Amino acid sequence: MDSHLGEGFGAHLEAWADMVCSFAGLPSQPDGVLAMPHIRRI
Fold first, then answer.
1. How far is residue 23's CA from residue 25's CA, in Å, rounded to a whole number?
2. pLDDT tens digits, residue range 1-42?
3. What is the pLDDT of residue 17?
4. C-beta of residue 27 within 8 angstroms of C-beta of residue 35
5. CB atoms < 10 A from the CB of 16, how many?
6. Biggest alpha carbon distance in the chain?
7. pLDDT of residue 13
8. How many CA atoms lie within 13 A of 8 on its CB side?
9. Residue 33's pLDDT is what?
10. Shortest CA distance to 13 belongs to which of 5, 1, 2, 25?
11. How many whole angstroms separate alpha carbon 16 and alpha carbon 24?
């Protein structure tokens, strides 16, 4: 595998993941912020 193939892969993967999350209706988070899972209490 050539080393130049992976140069922009990380940025491409991050952009793709952001797009998929927006299609799913998930809110975007700033860098360094993790969403807390919603726990349903019965």
1. 5
2. 455 666 788 888 888 888 898 888 877 777 788 777 777 777
3. 86
4. yes
5. 10
6. 53
7. 86
8. 3
9. 81
10. 5
11. 12
